[in-house]
Design goal:
single chain, about 300 residues, alpha/beta, Rossmann fold, nine-stranded mixed sheet, about 40% helix, Peptidase_A25, hydrolase, Pept_HybD-like_dom_sf, metalloendopeptidase activity, zymogen
């Protein structure tokens, strides 16, 4: 559902902020979508809140009506240019800050939770959810909190949605919290961005392999989805590289007519060149296994703090 298409372009991303940037770049202000951006003083974190209020806004964004929050490094743009930092080596929000935003998104009446670690624990780029659950289990949780790693369809032969529905029927939690690794449009958002939403999640949709949604409509209780991007399409990386060449002064003499294209036109061109052989190629940072330890620890600590105070 989040494959944002423009003619032959298919932009793979799980991040609402990137969809908003893409749509507003082509259409200007998006009717039915409210955008708020600000920086957390002294935290080095920029917050983007997107509220999709109408069916028209949802159609334009390719996302359900609801609230989407993105917390990312405020110096992301600065670190993009000629920096020797790792792509995923910039700042994430601290535990207290992230916990406060998670708590603000949860229903005030929710006191019992089912926490779901989505993804494949045997695949580094998809292991964020299972790792977070593992760390929460190690720290111990309240008796009114259940946790599950449902695996993926290829492992179990069952949809994660169906497994979770069965658990909900047996345990009757007030709310579901899902954790999943996401796909980003920009390589510079890998490991630097946390997305929170109250619209649930459709596992695999960011890489064009959507499964049945874990949503309030299917579960009959609120679903909060938390994710951090760990992969980006190869086409997006090449597109960003071409855009960077343009920004640092390479002109038509070197780039030819390509220099006249804007960022999204770069992406469309590269996508067409890559397809079909390399169209489904996604890339992760080489040190992602190390970064996952930091990401999962942050999510586990933040969730534990929120739940223990309920």
């Amino acid at each position: 559902m989040l494959n944002v298409k423009d003619n032959k372009t298919m932009m793979y991303t799980d991040l609402a902020v990137e969809i908003q940037e893409e749509c507003s770049g082509r259409q200007g202000e998006i009717p039915g979508v409210v955008l708020e951006q600000y920086k957390e003083d002294g935290k080095g974190i920029r917050v983007t809140k997107i509220q999709i209020q109408t069916a028209d806004g949802a159609k334009r964004m390719g996302r359900p009506i609801g609230n989407y929050m993105t917390l990312e490094s405020a110096d992301k743009e600065h670190s993009n240019k000629h920096s020797d930092k790792n792509l995923s080596g910039t700042k994430l929000p601290d535990t207290n800050l992230l916990a406060s935003y998670i708590n603000g998104l949860l229903p005030s009446s929710a006191h019992s939770f089912l926490i779901v670690g989505l993804g494949n624990a045997n695949m580094t780029a998809d292991a964020l959810g299972p790792l977070t659950i593992e760390k929460m289990a190690q720290s111990g949780m309240a008796s009114y909190t259940s946790m599950i790693v449902p695996g993926v369809f290829a492992q179990t032969g069952m949809e994660s949605c169906e497994i979770i529905q069965g658990i909900v029927q047996q345990t009757s939690p007030d709310c579901i919290i899902t954790i999943d690794a996401l796909a980003a449009r920009s390589a510079f958002r890998l490991g630097t961005t946390v997305q929170l939403t109250d619209t649930g999640i459709r596992p695999g949709s960011g890489v064009g392999n959507a499964r049945k949604g874990i949503t309030k409509e299917n579960m009959k209780i609120p679903v909060i989805a938390i994710g951090i991007p760990t992969v980006v399409s190869a086409a997006a990386i090449v597109s960003d590289a071409m855009d960077s060449l343009k920004q640092i002064g390479y002109n038509e003499t070197i780039l030819g007519s390509i220099a006249m294209l804007d960022k999204e036109e770069y992406y469309q061109l590269i996508s067409e060149v890559f397809a079909p052989e390399l169209g489904s190629l996604f890339v992760m940072p080489k040190n992602l296994d190390e970064e996952l330890d930091t990401m999962s620890s942050l999510l586990a600590a933040s969730l534990s703090q929120v739940i223990c105070k309920r």
